[in-house]
Amino acid sequence: MIVVDSTNTTHTSKIYPRFEPSQAVTYELYNETTREAVEIPNTYTYIDGIMEILYTYTFEVNSKFQVKITQGNDVIFRGKLIAINQDTQNYSPTNGIYTYSQI
């Protein structure tokens, strides 16, 4: 799952693609709430099997997307994306709502 900070508009996502792209790729976001798909202009680098995609998009807090990255008709990556307003490095789905203790 890709986690992005909704307070920023410029995002970098690192993924493991199915194959190394050799030309421009299409980055498509499908909003699971509004059921609308949008293609996002992007640039990418591919180093040691990791694809790093840079793009600009304004996300709403707690919005969820399906991500599809293609090159022509070939799918490079499929996954999920969530936009949050907490530190993405320490993302927690419950964000302190639930606590666990040993009995």
Structural overview:
The radius of gyration is 15 Å and the shape is globular. The strands form two sheets. The chain has a five-stranded mixed β-sheet with strand order 1-8-7-3-4, with no helix packed on it. It has a three-stranded antiparallel β-sheet with strand order 2-6-5, with no helix packed on it. Strand 7 and strand 8 form a beta hairpin. It contains no helices and eight strands. With 103 residues, it is mainly β.
Structural class determined from secondary elements:
mainly beta
Main sheet specs: 5 strands, mixed
Report Rg. Answer: 15 Å
The dominant shape is globular
Low-confidence stretches: none
Strand order of the largest sheet: 1-8-7-3-4
Termini distance? Answer: 32 Å
Order of helices and strands: EEEEEEEE
Number of strands: 8
Task: Report the sheet-strand fraction.
Answer: over 45%
Identify the notable features of this structure and list them briefly.
103 residues, mainly beta, five-stranded mixed β-sheet, three-stranded antiparallel β-sheet, 8 strands, 0% helix, globular
Entry summary:
This protein is mainly β and 103 residues long. 0% of the residues lie in helices and 50% in strands.
